[in-house]
Specification:
about 70% helix, disordered N terminus, mainly alpha, Ferritin
Length: about 180
């Protein structure tokens, strides 16, 4: 016996018969939230750059010029991943996957606010730990829906794991 509202294909009555969004809606829904997170992160980072430059940083900190190109590639990969998943028929698994995707975008922007704007490596570490968990959950949720979309998120998870180590390193080096 199935739970109320569930159909045999697992899509649920609330998604039955729905088609994927049009190409333009899908493009907007994939791109605009990522651009918003990217913009918020950029605006939140700028005021804290002088503070960041003055911090003692771990020996494995990359050169500053590397961050821009890396984040550009990662944000573009996120857009493509979201676009691919949004092209699937509406279903509960797609809805859950996209909810995780948008949650991790929010935590992506929040990390820049916590770390750079508030200049708080401890708060940044908490936020980035949640961010990494949400990225991994998104990868897992994308996998049965679209393996390419799932794999597009993997470099992002690796970079955020690396950024987590940097955040922790900065925190440890700041201890008295």
């Amino acid at each position: 016996m199935q739970a109320s509202g569930d159909s045999e294909n697992g899509q649920g009555a609330d998604f039955a018969g729905q088609k994927p969004p049009s190409r333009w809606v899908r493009l907007a829904v994939a791109i605009l939230p990522v651009l918003a997170a990217w913009g918020i992160a950029g605006l939140a980072t700028t005021p804290g750059m002088a503070w960041y430059q003055a911090l003692e940083r771990p020996f494995f900190t990359p050169p500053d010029w590397l961050f821009g190109p890396v984040w550009t590639v990662l944000y573009l990969a996120m857009m493509v991943a979201a676009w691919r998943v949004l092209g699937l028929r509406p279903s509960r698994p797609r809805h859950r996957a996209m909810t995780l995707f948008y949650l991790q975008l929010g935590f992506n922007a929040l990390w820049s606010i916590a770390f750079f704007t508030l200049q708080s490596p401890p708060f940044g570490l908490i936020v980035i730990a949640v961010l990494l968990a949400l990225i991994l959950a998104t990868i897992v949720a994308f996998r049965p829906l679209d393996r390419i979309a799932s794999w597009l998120m993997v470099p992002y998870a690796i970079w955020v794991a690396y950024a987590s180590a940097l955040n922790l390193g900065i925190l440890v080096l700041a201890l008295p």
